[in-house]
Amino acid sequence: ESTTDLAWDGHAIICENGELLAESERFTYEHALTTADIDLERLRQERMRLTSFNDCVQDHRERARRMRRIPVPLEPPSGVVPLQRAIARYPYVPSDPTTLDERCREAYSIQVQGLVRRMQATGIDKLVIGISGGLDSTQALLVAVQAVDTLALPRANILAVTLPGFATSQRTHANALELMRLLQVTAREIDIRPSATQMLHDIDHEYARGKPIYDTTFENVQAGERTSHLFRLANRCGGLVVGTSDLSELALGYTTYGVGDHMSHYAVNASVPKTLIQHLIRWVARREQVEAGVAPILEDILLTRITPELIPAEHSGGEPRSAEATIGPYALQDFNLYYLSRFGYRPSKVAFLAHHAWSRRDRGAWPPSISPAERHEYDLATLKHWLGVFVQRFFQVHQFKRSALPNGPKVGSGGSLSPRGDWRAPSDVRADVWLEELHRNVP
């Protein structure tokens, strides 16, 4: 019988580190060539970080000897070879709705259980948290509420404080108050302007003499006053200060060091990137994890511009100064963070992957809650610019903040920047080698 009269049941698959990249059609009469992009550098980086590979080699040595090896002549292509594989724009946020739901559920549960365990270990049953009406403090408050519910403690054990300053908007202030009311926590408001003004006067800052100087000192005085109040309130009520800063801010150093939002007794958001926090809040709102009536406030907070609200709006063109105007779009910077810290890729390779993922909005899948108006695309020059900003801030300028991080739970395989966990680096390193590689290899 001729073999051409029979369907061939050969089934070719191409996998990389356990992930299926491509597979051939089964039961076909025709010969077929199956191709896929394999990231050899990723495999090398994984073998450097994960020691289990060598252990598996030893365990399966005899089986490996029996494997059939087929040599295939391969000439490198002379022209440009386009990338076949899909590169996720949001590596921390799955595009598949079911997978995203599972990711949010697990991340939220880890945050809650981490805080529960810290309260049990210390024997402290009260929490203190600053509420700004922004994303990070909202997520931290949701975690705190679930933690005290899990421990069967009254929500009144959470002292939630809003601390309006010189640039607090009416919208965020109202959302903070309403969120605290709906969640039935102990709510308090402390206007930090008098104490911040006294501090500015004590250090002879120009603002205290009537001059509109809104520099880093002006900003950090407010951040410091807020944190100082929270710690002293925690002393008075015997509670833990719950931190709100997220992984993206810590990577970029966009926090006030020491007596500022950098410090807390327990940092529940410390390994959760900004892009994932938005989806966690949305997940809580839509999965009825909280009381009816809270969801509309959460949705409005999600629509609020990301800003530290430290400089008066009239000084920045009538709108609060956007954080992303200073440090870059969080979606891009989370992309850069993932591939630089998780896999240790060279900046030029990160730029290559970013260009493939972000150069066309009509290519590839988007997370389901990203609206068409939010689906941006970027040219290579823009990607290179913000990657340069990330490299400078991440490697050279702000490592000293990450060397003194408070405790917090590790959420997800993307890693954390804790010196006791996935990231250890000297605080006085320079970024020259990374910047030089970026500028040399990216046009």
Task: Walk me through the structure.
With 443 residues, the protein is an alpha/beta fold. It has helices at 40-49, 52-59, 61-65, 97-122, 135-150, 170-182, 193-202, 216-237, 247-252, 274-286, 294-303, 323-327, 330-342, 347-358, 380-397, 399-402, 432-441, and strands spanning 13-16, 19-23, 127-130, 158-162, 186-189, 240-243, 266-267. The strands form two sheets. The chain has a five-stranded parallel beta sheet, sandwiched between helices. Strands 1-2 form a two-stranded antiparallel ribbon. Helix 6 (170-182) packs antiparallel against helix 11 (294-303) and helix 13 packs across helix 15 (380-397). 37% of the residues are buried. The model is unreliable at 1-7 (pLDDT under 50).
Structural key phrases:
alpha/beta, 443 residues, 17 helices, single chain, two-stranded antiparallel ribbon, 45% helix
Strand order of the largest sheet: 5-4-3-6-7
The percent range for strand residues is: 5-15%
Shape: globular
Structural class: alpha/beta
